[in-house]
Design brief:
The complex is a heterodimer. Chain A is an alpha+beta fold. Chain A folds into 2 domains: 110 residues, no CATH class; 103 residues, Tick-borne Encephalitis virus Glycoprotein, domain 1 (Sandwich). Chain A is built from 6 helices and 8 strands, in the order αααααββββββββα. Chain A has a 4-stranded antiparallel sheet with strand order 1-8-7-6, with no helix packed on it. In chain A, a hairpin with a 2-residue loop joins β6 and β7. In chain A, α3 packs antiparallel against α4, α4 crosses α5 and α4 packs antiparallel against α6. The radius of gyration of chain A is 24 Å and the shape is elongated. By secondary structure, chain B is mostly helical. Chain B has 2 domains: 115 residues; 151 residues, no CATH class. Chain B has 8 helices and no strands. Classes of the chains: A alpha+beta, B mainly alpha.
């Protein structure tokens, strides 16, 4: 079982390296493709089996947290994926759109979600967003022959939900979180009036993924940083300081 | 290959010379002189870093020139920690690592100051990069320590109580110190990616190599847990492979057009 787990880790390593040569778009397609679902299932089952088969080792809180963290990240990622959203919709749960875009001209109110082409409609957001103003901040010019660089892109919006109108701002690194969706400042353009493109991402499964992150960090610190009486994985007790003046 | 003919460049080259002298001093068994020269080199690199900070107006962690300069300063506290906590510090490795880190700052990377693009203006910018740099330094030191185990020595099973065993334990201890930081760096990056780009995982080449590096160290710790100290060569090979993956992740992925992606601004 241990060797199987090791083989699984190095198999994933190979996949990650292969994915790096594909570019983000194709790598995302590859890792979400049905032929790879058995790998994710195997990994999930392997982590679950680890808790049963290595129950003694898993009493170590650090080790248990590390593996539970990986498990939660896998489960949360599935929930957050297109396949997870499709499954939730099929089961009659919230039919959210996992990833879409809102294109808004200044003064325009819309709730129409579009795909990556920004043309094809995907559905409705469930509340209206009006772009009040789109703007950019610039750095002071460093040199006369170089254009000043952009410091920030920001969209001032109003959110319409029923009779309520809530003003808000979306800028890079400062998304809005509204009713199960995150809204991001992702692009802009002119045709000829300025328009802003907001990315709309579903937050399903995020809490589970974040819980996995917390467990991973906690587990890593406990497992590798805290001193234990019987350090495993080497069988050699710490040695008294030895002097080694040179590289060898 | 480029030369920075500026006061900043001169400071960097002097620091580089100090690290080279520190290495020589350690090799000829003059540890005190080696430590003093290492500290002098780090002080000069710190001066260069402060200069750079004033010049750019932001924490100098944006591009390869700046992050390698920061790492070259961090060598000095790392060396102190190694002396303090490792059973066999192999002190010559500190100036060697310092020299290897500072060399590309002086001769390879562009020193053109740049403003921070909007995506980099986040409270996670400094912790994400700083945690990663600390992890990389510790894991690089772990790999060099593991290699030193076999330098001029016949590879054999490290026996308890020998210098070999102490070096073997030292490399493992460094890897154990670095791995949680590597994990934290990956996770801070994921959190930042969620805030800036909408998703905590973008399948970007840099992210894929970071994951590959993390998985390599996962493999190392699983292998160590399974086999103990029976295969020191394999353990050393895994640590060296980890260092190779780090070098690829930090430099080649950013510089090579083959891997263009969201992290391309960090050239």
């Amino acid at each position: 079982m241990q060797w199987f787990n090791l083989a699984l880790i190095f198999g994933l390593l190979g996949l990650a390296i292969a994915g790096s040569f594909l570019g983000a778009e194709r790598a995302k397609e590859l890792f979400n493709a049905p032929p790879l679902w058995p790998v994710w299932t195997l990994l999930t089952l392997g982590l679950l089996a680890g808790f049963c088969m290595f129950a003694t080792q898993m009493r170590n809180p650090g080790l248990a947290a590390l593996h539970a963290g990986c498990l939660l990240i896998l489960l949360g990622s599935f929930w957050n994926s297109h396949a997870g959203h499709a499954l939730a919709a099929r089961c009659g749960l919230a039919g959210k759109i996992p990833w879409s875009y809102l294109v808004l001209h200044e003064g325009e109110l819309s709730d129409l979600l579009r795909d990556e082409s920004l043309v094809q409609p995907l559905g409705r957001l469930g509340f209206g967003v009006r772009l009040d103003k789109f703007g950019m901040d610039f750095y002071p010019q460093r040199r006369a022959d170089v254009e000043p660089e952009v410091k920030q892109y920001r969209s001032s919006v109003s959110l319409f939900s029923g009779t309520q109108v809530v003003p808000a701002e979306v800028s890079v690194n400062h998304p809005l979180h509204v009713r199960g969706y995150h809204l991001y400042q992702i692009s802009w353009g002119r045709d000829p009036d300025p328009y802003s493109v907001l990315l709309v991402a579903s937050d399903s499964g995020l809490t589970v993924v974040y819980a996995g992150f917390v467990l991973l960090v906690f587990g890593g610190a406990v497992r590798f940083w805290l001193r234990r009486k019987n350090r495993d994985g080497g069988g050699m007790p710490p040695q008294p300081a030895a002097t080694a003046g040179g590289a060898a | 290959m480029m030369v920075h003919a500026t006061p900043l460049g001169a400071t960097i080259y002097t620091a580089l010379a100090a690290y080279a002298c520190a290495l020589v001093a350690q090799l000829v068994r003059r540890p005190r002189a080696g430590r003093a020269l290492l500290a002098a080199g780090a002080a000069l690199a710190l001066g260069a870093l402060a200069w750079r900070w004033l010049e750019t107006g932001h924490v100098p962690l944006q591009n390869l020139f700046e992050i390698f300069l920061v790492m070259s300063v961090a060598i000095c506290p790392l060396a102190w920690c190694c002396r303090r906590w490792l059973p066999a510090p192999v002190e010559a490795l500190d100036p060697l690592l310092g020299f290897l880190v500072l060399f590309p700052v002086g001769f390879v990377f562009s020193a053109e100051p740049r403003d921070l693009p909007p995506a980099l203006q986040s409270f996670l910018f400094v912790p994400h990069v700083a945690v990663y740099l600390a992890a990389y330094l510790l894991l690089a030191r772990a790999a060099l320590t593991a290699v030193s185990l076999f330098w001029k020595r016949k590879a054999s099973l490290p026996q308890i109580g020998t210098l070999q065993s102490s070096i073997f334990n030292s490399s493992d201890r460094l890897a154990r110190a670095g791995f949680p930081l590597l994990t934290a760096g990956l996770i801070l990056g994921a959190l930042w990616g969620k805030l800036a780009w909408g998703d905590y995982w973008h399948w970007d080449p840099k992210e894929m190599w970071s994951l590959a590096t993390w998985l390599l160290y996962c493999g190392y710790f699983h292998f160590r847990a399974m086999t103990g100290a029976r295969y020191p060569r394999t353990c050393a090979a895994l640590l060296v492979a980890g260092l190779a993956a780090i070098i690829l992740t930090v430099t080649i992925v950013n510089l090579a057009n083959l891997f263009s992606g969201l992290h391309s601004y960090a050239k």
